[in-house]
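Quick one, tokens below. Sequence please?
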């Protein structure tokens, strides 16, 4: 897989440069306004400009970053990144916002890279030997990466300096998943050890960035089933054993964060919101990213917890959310039985990534947030891209391939332009 990926890039170097230029240009147009933003008093104070522990990289400050969880969360790598920004530019918000935009740009390129890796794994015919298919993969991949990058749901993670932990966590999760694809197809023992080590390091860095990565072992196991199909040639015991290092790190980070939240006295207990109500709240939490991805309007910084009287099936929001979850699960299961396994795999990946922030365990007065959709929606972004490539391959047998691809790219570019304008306006808020 790694060799195929390198060969694909080497045989299409001009298209890779086009991809880089398009991604950089699109993100610059949308997020340039971030550089003019100031810090805000929502977490930017305690995480950045009013935190004396981040204003220099001393041994005492590094120890504080590794051991502090006084504000509910333990994310030392996020603290360290803020400290580096402070070392470079002091309290100048432009420097802190610039690094967030750059990290987001790297993530968008990694999304494009992961899209190519997934397609290379699923194609029986080598795209490197089919220039037309190669062109189609690049065109659709670039369009979807830009759509992901400029969507208004990305603004909160990029424009809010304190939420750099979202970007760092996503970066290392994406690297870990790509390394897992390479590792699964590696042939030599030395290569497998190197790739497995890179996977574990990336997973550890993701967990040091944000606890949302605790479900990464389950995500890798789902990918083993589909699209990698490793369960067909390896026993389940072997697949589980190789996840143990990542699972052990995830459990340790989960335990640290659970204890820190308990000490902070910010978790909403079952006595305040019962488990039946939590399930209703989580049903909306799972559906929320889909709804806002398809129709990104009325995006706000805080979506407060509903009143206890509102958490009932008679409330249309929770009734429709619960029905949508059941319907989506049945639909994906039906598609699996028909042989379209990508739907259920994408749905399972989405549920796993979304579970930590779904609302099953609530903190403070927040029910959900735009930034929670950053990683989970990637599974359906990749599924949509793979579906478009398959449809384009069928269409090019009947129509002009370039004509079909031009029309498809124009449609995606139009959607990206509309979303980009909305995101750019939101950046300035």
């Amino acid at each position: 897989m790694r060799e195929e990926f390198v060969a694909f890039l080497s045989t299409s170097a001009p298209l890779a440069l086009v991809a880089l230029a398009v991604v950089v240009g699109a993100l610059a147009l949308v997020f340039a306004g971030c550089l003019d933003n100031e810090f805000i008093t929502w977490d930017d104070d305690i995480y950045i400009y009013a935190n004396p522990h981040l204003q220099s990289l001393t041994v005492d400050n590094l120890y504080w970053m590794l051991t502090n969880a006084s504000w509910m969360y333990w994310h030392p790598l996020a603290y360290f990144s803020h400290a580096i920004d402070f070392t470079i530019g002091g309290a100048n918000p432009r420097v802190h916002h610039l690094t967030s935009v750059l990290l987001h740009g790297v993530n968008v390129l990694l999304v494009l890279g992961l899209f190519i890796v997934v397609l290379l794994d699923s194609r029986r015919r080598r795209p490197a030997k089919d220039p037309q298919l190669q062109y189609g993969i690049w065109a659709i991949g670039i369009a979807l990466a830009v759509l992901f990058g400029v969507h208004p749901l990305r603004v909160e993670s990029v424009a809010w300096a304190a939420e750099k932990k979202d970007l760092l966590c996503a970066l290392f999760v994406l690297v870990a998943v790509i390394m897992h694809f390479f590792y699964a197809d590696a042939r030599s023992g030395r290569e497998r050890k190197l790739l497995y080590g890179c996977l574990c390091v990336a997973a550890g860095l993701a967990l040091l960035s944000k606890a949302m990565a605790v479900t990464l072992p389950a995500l890798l196991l789902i990918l083993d089933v589909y699209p990698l199909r490793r369960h067909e040639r390896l026993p389940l015991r072997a697949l589980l054993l190789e996840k143990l290092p990542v699972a052990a790190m995830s459990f340790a980070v989960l335990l640290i964060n659970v204890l820190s939240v308990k000490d902070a006295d910010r978790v909403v207990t079952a006595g305040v919101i019962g488990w039946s109500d939590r399930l209703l709240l989580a049903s909306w939490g799972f559906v929320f990213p889909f709804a806002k991805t398809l129709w990104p309007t009325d995006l706000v910084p805080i979506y407060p917890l509903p009143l206890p009287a509102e958490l009932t099936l008679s409330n249309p929001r929770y009734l429709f959310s619960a029905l949508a979850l059941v319907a989506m699960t049945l639909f994906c299961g039906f598609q699996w039985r028909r042989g379209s396994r990508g739907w259920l795999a994408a749905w399972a990946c989405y549920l796993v990534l979304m579970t930590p922030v779904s609302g099953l365990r609530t903190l403070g007065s927040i029910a959900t947030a735009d930034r929670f959709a950053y990683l989970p929606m990637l599974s359906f972004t990749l599924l949509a891209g793979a579906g478009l490539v398959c449809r384009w391959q069928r269409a090019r047998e009947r129509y002009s391939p370039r004509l079909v691809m031009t029309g498809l790219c124009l449609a995606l570019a139009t959607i990206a332009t509309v979303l980009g304008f909305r995101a750019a306006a939101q950046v300035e808020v």
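Residues 266-395 form one domain. DSSP finds 18 helices and two strands in the chain.
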